[in-house]
């Protein structure tokens, strides 16, 4: 409380709080309507295979095109969607839309995976395996072209339960990636017991490459550890040629970031695929 700071300051604080909760209330109301109004859109960011220089996949990232606020970033509305339970219909829409898009890529001759972020709540819901199976059936996408990105916070809240869900997802044939890796508390022994395919190194560690010895050591260690566990590594948040070179030298498999491309609309991404020439890249 701002009690000791005097009366004026206290009132200011209260006014600020109510403005914020009003804002939050409005966002929540708008979020409930956003689905019907078709205000959500998926953007796609390419993932580059560092060995071949080719686009090997794309991460689907949700965007909310709000009628008056403009584009609301996911960090601002995913938490509200989680608190209100709206994450379930929204998450299902994301899965459907991403799979539909990946089918189009396949039809156009581009064999690449689509990666979809799953919220912890979606995984805890119990029927996530059925949802994924149904979406694959409805869209006709082969499960080998779908990757699900999970975060550590979920996995280690209820480890044995998550391990079972992951096993069932893996039986469907989808790939599993651990997102923002290094920011949580995964230990080697836990990682070994999960049926994961890839680790995504959090961008906070990529940031200091190649000059920061601490970041370099961390990224090097993650890559070595992943190799020993037969996991692939994706670097996130690659913004410069120096970071790209450094990751290449460290033996990282896959790379993603503004250096290659920012997330873009489905249409722009398809155009990128159609015009992408390996020779002129990286
Ligand atoms: P994330 O899954 O770790 O996604 C990566 C974020 O980093 C994205 O932010 C992306 O735009 C951004 N990014 C990509 N390259 C660079 C770079 O070179 N530099 C920097 N500074 N940033 C880069 P975005 O799209 O705002 O998404 C933020 C977070 O929201 C995601 O983090 C993910 O946790 C969540 N999210 C996004 N879409 C969905 C979704 O469909 N469902 C769920 N449950 N969560 C989602
Ligand atoms: Mg992600
Ligand atoms: Mg991430
Ligand atoms: Mg994240």
TrEMBL record:
This is cyclic-guanylate-specific phosphodiesterase. The chain holds residues 366 to 647 of 647 of the full protein. It comes from Nitrincola lacisaponensis. Residues 24-277 form the EAL domain. It comes from the Bacteria. Coiled coil: none annotated.
